[in-house]
Amino acid sequence: MAPAALESRTRDRILQVISERGPITAATLALDLGLTAPAVRRHLENLEDAGLIAAHEVASSVRGRGRPARSFVLSDAGHQGLESDYDHLATEALRFISQESGEGAVRRFAESRVAELEGRYAAELAAAGTGTAARVDALVGALTRDGFAASARPVGEPGSTSPFTGIQLCQGHCPVQHAAREFPQFCDAETDAFSRLLGVHVQRLATLAHGDHVCTTFVPTSTGIPTSTVAGASAAPSTTPTSVTTTPVTTTAVSPTEGSTR
Predict the structure, then answer these.
(1) In a domain, 192, yes or no
(2) 213: domain range?
(3) Strands of the chain, DSSP E
(4) Same domain, 99 and 62
(5) What is the pLDDT of residue 5?
(6) Alpha-carbon distances of 155 from 54, 102, 251, 261, rounded to whole Å
(7) 13, 30, 124, 159: least surrounded by Cβ within 10 Å?
């Protein structure tokens, strides 16, 4: 592979990992990608100069000498670079639908679009069994395949019955982020679909559309999946997305109102 092509491929890999796991440090990126620390720092400097990533300051409760390691997230320009021009066309079409037929028509369109995804995912989650964690893993795989750069991580004490124990489902990229900024019906419909697919009431904590660097959904695991609640049943009530600054989960004592990190 030509040097220029190799450089471009490495740059794209770094952007993708930042999208999925940001905020993330240069050291972690180097370890995950099998690159040298100087090579990663060089790419990060170039990406930061291009305005595609931004440093994310994380307050640390651990005192030590020197400044804490810098972590990086995608900037607005970085997210837009992953967006398709079709997203802008979709937003124009949605504005026309809203003006001609009202907000209800936009909501029905969003529900119809999500229903198609839900129908495809339902069989995969059913095959994963009734355990919430296994179903979340299956959902992560399906979302990632569809371009949402999904990941999941546990929060709270394992085995605890606390309502704050669960899994944070993260989406580092959203194919309809631009449209969802103006039409939150897409976020609401997706949240309701997650509740039906997972069989528990989930809570949306943060969204890319509202300016956060990742979409974060809290999935409780303190109760088992209700056998009467399966994909295709009536939707659980959704929680209106709120803008929450999210940080990486590095401890087990995290409440669902603390974000993580489509």
Answers:
(1) yes
(2) 85-220
(3) 24-25, 53-56, 71-74, 150-155, 166-171, 203-206, 215-220
(4) no
(5) 53
(6) 26, 40, 8, 12
(7) 159
